[in-house]
Amino acid sequence: xxxxxxAGNFIKMPGADALYEHLTNVLLNIVKERPEAAxxxxxxxxxxxxxxxxETVVHSxxxxxxxxxxxxxxxxxxxxxxxxxxxxxxxxxxxxxxxxPIPDFMAESSLLEWAGFGLGKExxxxxxxxxxxxxxxxxxxxxxxxxxxxxxxQDYHIVEAKLEEYPEEEEAEGxxxxxxxxxxxxxxxxxxxxxTCTDAWTQLPAVKAxxxxxxxxxxxxxxxxxxxxxxxxPRFPYGEAxxxxxxxxxxxxxxxxxxxxxxxxxxxxxxxxxxxxEEYGGITPMLCGPSTWVHGRTHLxxxxxxxxxxxxxxxxxxDEDEGDETEKKSEEKEVAPKKLRALxxxxxxxxxxxxxxxxxxxxxxxxxxxxxxxxxxxxxxxxSFVNWYCGFGHKRGSGYAPPNPPAMAEEYxxxxxxxxxxxxxxxxxxxxxxxxPPEGWTPPEEVEEEEEDDDEPPVEGEADAEE
Length: 467
Prior knowledge:
- The protein is an alpha+beta fold.
- Among the domains are: 3-59, no CATH class; 107-166 and 177-252, no CATH class; 258-317 and 330-391, no CATH class.
- The protein is 25% helix and 14% strand.
- Helix 1 (16-33) crosses helix 2 and helix 4 crosses helix 5 (121-138).
């Protein structure tokens, strides 16, 4: 709407008062601060004023130092900082290591963008540099940008990788023997986390069976600090780093999907070893559906392992009574589903499938989005496929209700039976009679209290109070 003045020469547009006030505040801040580059300060001051800053600082040394430090940290990812001149001459610069092979995250980001996921080209490139330095420093193989788990204070950016040789572990005993060894089962891969691309990467501990079992019984948002305690009921007493690792294991087991025929399993192999299919020819997006996607990771049992645990002590003992009892024990054990099972076996509503932007497009991609773990998606195009997760790290449910506290213990019974008890025996829980006093003991004499004399003269001050 256009408003004209009485003179008719000046035309006032809507929002003119707000624009005039905005320019006034920006110019006032420039006059107060008197920056050297006033024209450049005008742009930054306009942005800060529009954002609603009460006291806009157009250009200060503190702000410039903060911006310079953040920029330099990103530049160091491309080229490490030079050594100081104060070092001894004997310490020669180490030869640069050969860069470890990692996937092309920029190409994977383009695939994810079709399905509505990803970080954008700029952020993806920064993380690409950071992950490249990590893989080269730690000599990692099978590196994959796993995804992001959101936190209330900071987010976890997670990298999945493998080692060429895993360190030897001591033989575990007791409950620790239920944990799968490094390089096998749920601990097949190792994981590193960082809050920002310029932070140092921290390796998460190996996942334990007890941690996975407890994580399935609770739900708690992450804070973004590995040292934080995990509150709630039931209590997770191992810290947020262990809780994060347990949730990663659960997401991998339930939401990692790959196109059919990418991997193969020898039907005659009892252990069902998964191998890459060298003859894989790619996918046709328009034909992708529940039957053309399979689970790429081993199913996680309720006991927190990918394989049923067998007590080593029980194997050494010879079972005298073989037959019905042995059969019952074997029936009670959870049966793990076959590897590379189709996503259709998860039931309706577990996955959503789509082709983007459309099936007729030349560069169309097929996507399988997991509905049980919101934030997990698998995208494929030709022979390329990528898995990605970006969410809060929780499984979807109809509504989380913490488990009930344990039932109250029944009142203790001593098991005393008067009919079968020995003569003179009494129930230990029955109230005992009062114990008789020792011989020669006499009760103390009661001392009568002297009655107060009403005729006693009052104390000074009391009489005045009565008057």
